């Protein structure tokens, strides 16, 4: 019983000390703050696209046959009209020779028909030739002329067949691939070469459909293109074309940006595009990178000092330049924390160590 009373007494004493003792002071975090620079800028749509050629053709022959000669390899640059491939045209040339002979025969037949006609015309003046014979000879001339015209058409047809045994480049470009070898049988469905134009390139982008209203029926929309390779210079261009048909799976629209010839790019490369959205300006705040807290989901936030406590603001990173980050959504004319933000939480007590910049 005595032990029980002692326990109750000790518990009561501890409870009284807890109630009447002064509250523990919250931990204060010392921080450096900055009054950031502000600027106005167009809202920018950032996308990654693929450089493509205006002309990118899978070439096939116009006749079936065996490959007799190859004049180019993958990687070769060719001019428009350059000879690329020849099929075995032996049979076609024999048929061509036959058609040429048929034309010569038709010429001889026409000459003979005309001679006979002239002969009866001369005799008709002496009234010794029947009118029927004159008509027959005249019809013979007309028939011979028709035969010659038909033979000439057959000759032209066979000449075209022979010429179609050779494949020519339809435009200037580079041979991206060759898919046939000597002695191989190819048909009109065989993709023999892939020819890619090099001089006229464009950047192909997929624009989210929610931006269609801002970009449709607009002209001279500025775009900054940055190739995805080391030391690449930015290229200033314009939005050339917006295809007003949305993909029913990705819900995006195709856009083309024509690239200058001196861009030093090749088809298939990737590049980033920054499209300045028309009639859309936003206030940007420039902060040191140390002031940005990155989230696992890709978002970002900053902390402002409000009544000596940390207040969190969600921001959107717009661009980065020279060690600084431009964000939108930051409060105006507030001291922003730029040190120790990794473990900072909303409501932390703060003590300012140093201040950069001046409030506006």
From TrEMBL:
<comment type="similarity">
    <text>Belongs to the membrane fusion protein (MFP) (TC 8.A.1) family.</text>
</comment>
<dbReference type="GO" id="GO:1990281">
    <property type="term" value="C:efflux pump complex"/>
</dbReference>
<keyword id="KW-0175">Coiled coil</keyword>
<feature type="domain" description="CusB-like beta-barrel">
    <location>
        <begin position="203"/>
        <end position="276"/>
    </location>
</feature>
<dbReference type="GO" id="GO:0015562">
    <property type="term" value="F:efflux transmembrane transporter activity"/>
</dbReference>
<feature type="signal peptide">
    <location>
        <begin position="1"/>
        <end position="26"/>
    </location>
</feature>
<dbReference type="InterPro" id="IPR058647">
    <property type="entry name" value="BSH_CzcB-like"/>
</dbReference>
<feature type="coiled-coil region">
    <location>
        <begin position="96"/>
        <end position="123"/>
    </location>
</feature>
<dbReference type="Pfam" id="PF25954">
    <property type="entry name" value="Beta-barrel_RND_2"/>
</dbReference>
<dbReference type="InterPro" id="IPR006143">
    <property type="entry name" value="RND_pump_MFP"/>
</dbReference>
<protein>
    <submittedName>
        <fullName>Efflux RND transporter periplasmic adaptor subunit</fullName>
    </submittedName>
</protein>
<dbReference type="Pfam" id="PF25973">
    <property type="entry name" value="BSH_CzcB"/>
</dbReference>
<dbReference type="InterPro" id="IPR058792">
    <property type="entry name" value="Beta-barrel_RND_2"/>
</dbReference>
<feature type="domain" description="CzcB-like barrel-sandwich hybrid">
    <location>
        <begin position="57"/>
        <end position="195"/>
    </location>
</feature>
<keyword id="KW-0732">Signal</keyword>
């Amino acid at each position: 019983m005595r032990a029980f009373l002692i326990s109750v007494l000790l518990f009561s004493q501890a409870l009284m000390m807890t109630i009447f003792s002064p509250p523990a002071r919250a931990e204060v975090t010392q921080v450096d703050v900055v009054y950031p620079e502000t600027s106005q800028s167009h809202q920018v749509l950032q996308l990654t696209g693929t450089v493509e050629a205006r002309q990118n053709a899978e070439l096939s022959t116009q006749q079936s046959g065996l490959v007799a000669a190859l004049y180019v390899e993958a990687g070769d640059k060719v001019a428009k009209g350059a000879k690329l491939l020849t099929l075995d045209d032996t049979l076609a040339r024999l048929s061509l020779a036959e058609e040429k002979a048929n034309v010569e025969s038709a010429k001889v037949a026409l000459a003979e028909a005309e001679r006979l006609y002239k002969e009866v015309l001369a005799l008709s003046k002496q009234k010794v030739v029947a009118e029927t014979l004159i008509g027959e000879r005249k019809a013979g001339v007309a028939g011979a002329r028709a035969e010659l015209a038909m033979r000439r058409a057959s000759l032209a047809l066979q000449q075209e067949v022979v010429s179609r045994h050779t494949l020519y480049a339809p435009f200037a470009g580079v041979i991206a691939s060759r898919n046939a070898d000597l002695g191989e049988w190819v048909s009109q469905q065989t993709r023999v070469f892939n020819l890619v134009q090099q001089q006229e390139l464009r950047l192909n982008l997929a624009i989210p459909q929610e931006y269609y209203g801002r970009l449709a029926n607009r002209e001279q929309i500025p775009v900054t293109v940055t190739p995805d390779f080391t030391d690449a210079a930015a290229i200033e261009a314009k939005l050339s074309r917006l295809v007003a048909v949305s993909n029913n799976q990705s819900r995006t629209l195709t856009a083309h940006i024509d690239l200058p010839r001196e861009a030093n790019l090749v088809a298939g490369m990737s590049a980033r595009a920054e499209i300045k959205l028309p009639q859309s300006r936003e206030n940007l705040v420039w902060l040191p990178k140390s002031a940005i807290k990155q989230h696992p989901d890709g978002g970002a936030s900053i902390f402002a000092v409000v009544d000596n406590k940390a207040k969190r603001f969600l921001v959107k990173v717009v661009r980065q330049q020279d060690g600084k980050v431009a964000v939108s959504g930051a409060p105006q004319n507030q001291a922003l924390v730029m040190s120790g933000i990794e473990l900072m939480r909303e409501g932390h007590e703060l003590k300012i160590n140093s201040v950069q910049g001046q409030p506006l």
